[in-house]
Write a structure and sequence with these properties.
7-stranded mixed barrel; globular; alpha/beta; 30% helix; two-stranded antiparallel sheet
């Protein structure tokens, strides 16, 4: 399949952005864009960019679940006690399927607009949901909907999220850990969270102070805040190894 729908929806989002009033942007990474033919508009550049900053995490990772600094601490990167119990229940005798791992996908730039009533919208999140990718996620612990026909797979040294027409929506240049890949293969699914401030890109305060650790608790707090603000969409997609 050609993925023409994905490309068409991105073009329509860019056109919509150009017709509305842009608002302030969230602090995300900037990147150079190379285009062929006529010079594209800024909105077209952003809408056409499928490269995302990604992070592959096991189910129950503290960067997804840690409550705050007052929570009893486990080692960085280790699943919480509750998540470990859940995993034991799923992977115990007679239950060989592991919990679906998680992929966080943060587009490199935002495409912010306001509607006629002055409400702000991030169009990349809006269009991926309209294309059939799950829906908005209220909290990191919220159940996510299946996205029929959508897949996540390894390709050319990264992970690619594609829709039911094989249209590319996100590509993360990351190497997932063997344990993550094993969980994806065992469950046959991956939970993908797509949006901004997911605890992937350190905030400016951390970038300006290299000595300040961006802990799992801080990452989880940022993700919770982003979910509550409507900046995150999520779906359960099929894993294609």
């Amino acid at each position: 399949m050609s993925g023409r729908r994905a490309k068409r929806q991105r073009r329509e989002a860019a056109t919509a952005a150009e017709r509305r009033v842009p608002t302030g942007r969230l602090p995300t990474l900037s990147r150079p864009v190379t285009a062929q033919g006529s010079e594209p508009t800024e909105a077209q550049r952003i809408a056409a960019d499928t490269e995302v900053v990604g992070r592959a995490l096991p189910a129950g990772h503290p960067a997804l679940t840690a409550e705050d600094d007052a929570t009893p601490r486990q080692a960085e990167g280790e699943p919480t006690a509750e998540a470990a119990r859940d995993a034991d229940e799923v992977t115990g005798p007679g239950h060989p399927v592991r919990p679906a791992p998680v992929l966080l996908c943060e587009p490199r730039r935002t495409l912010m607009v306001t509607d006629g009533d002055g409400a702000a919208t991030e169009l990349q999140i809006e269009i991926i949901v309209q294309a059939g990718f799950g829906g908005r996620v209220a909290t990191p612990a919220s159940a996510v909907d299946d996205a029929p026909g959508w897949t996540l797979s390894r390709a050319d040294g990264g992970l690619e999220l594609r829709d039911d027409e094989d249209g590319l929506w996100a590509r993360a240049e990351i190497t997932a850990a063997p344990e993550w890949l094993a969980a994806a293969s065992s469950s046959g699914q991956v939970v993908v969270l797509y949006g901004f401030r997911l605890g992937v890109v350190p905030p400016d305060v951390h970038l300006a102070n290299p000595g300040q650790t961006y802990t799992d608790a801080l990452r989880a707090a940022e993700l919770r805040e982003s979910c509550a603000g409507g900046w995150v969409a999520g779906a359960r997609v099929a894993w294609r190894s």
